[in-house]
Amino acid sequence: PVVACLMDLATGGAYYLATAADQIIAHPTTITGGMGVILNLYNLRDAMMQFNILGVPIKAGPYTDLGSPIRELDDQGRALLQHLADQYHARFQEVVRMCRPQHDPARQEDFDGRVFLAQEAMDRGLIDGIGYLDDAIALARRLAHAPQAKVVVLHRSYDAARSVYATTPIQPIQTNLFPLSVPGFDRSQLPTFLYIWQPEPTLERRATGR
Fold first, then answer.
1. Which domains occur in the chain, in start order?
2. Which residues have a Cβ under 8 Å from the Cβ of 180 and sit 6 or more positions away?
3. What is the pLDDT of residues 60-108, one digit of tens each?
């Protein structure tokens, strides 16, 4: 059996991952839900013009640079990106309906990106119980019929892992230690579609560990 324990913040992609578990337990103060999709794009043309900087892309295909910050997004380009976002969103809804049969499919408002505290999430069938990590471990033991099972912590080589709470935030694959110019090496820093609750853009970097 797989038991997921949601702690302080488990929205968007974190909840997406949790749906694969047999049971989901959340702290009483957990914020979860956030089942939406967002793509952050910025128009920097005016800012660049103030510094006399002009982007001159050479491209084949009118939408090769779709979403570029150096040109305005036209209606057709916006429609193309919206279509992608809608497809990601539909996939999220499909996963929740498949993995969480106790969730009422008529509650379409649950998929509009809003977030919930644990009690409301449980009332809506998004989680199975409220508790702490110890409760989740105890539940896993009961489901596995292994009351004496010990906890094994899988951790990164640079994690101290002195307890089940000792983790290190995900670090980006790019660092200043490797000043390389390799095509595609900075892909994880580029704009991308995110399953994330994001009330303000700077959370993108903090929430994804980048």
1. 3-174+181-208 (3.90.226)
2. none
3. 988 888 888 888 889 999 999 999 999 999 999 999 999 999 999 889 9
Query: Which residues share a beta bridge with 207?
Result: none
Q: Give the pairing of strands 23-26 and 3-6.
A: parallel
Read off the DSSP letter of residue 169: P
Whole-number pLDDT of residue 182:
45
Q: How many CA atoms lie within 13 A of 22 on its CB side?
A: 11
Of the chain, the end-to-end C-alpha distance in Å amounts to 32
Cα separation, 151 vs 28, in Å, equals 23
**Per-residue DSSP letters for 39-99?**
------HHHHHHTT-------SSTTTTTT-TTSPPPHHHHHHHHHHHHHHHHHHHHHHHHH
Phi, psi angles (nearest 5°) of residue 5: -115, 115
When pLDDT is averaged across residues 162-171 and rounded to a whole number, the result is 68
d(CA 187, CA 192): 9
Under the phi-then-psi rule, with left for phi > 0, alpha for psi from -120 to 50, and beta for the rest, what region is 193? beta
Q: What's the residue count for the chain? A: 210
Question: What pTM was computed for the model?
Answer: 0.79
pLDDT of 208 reads 44
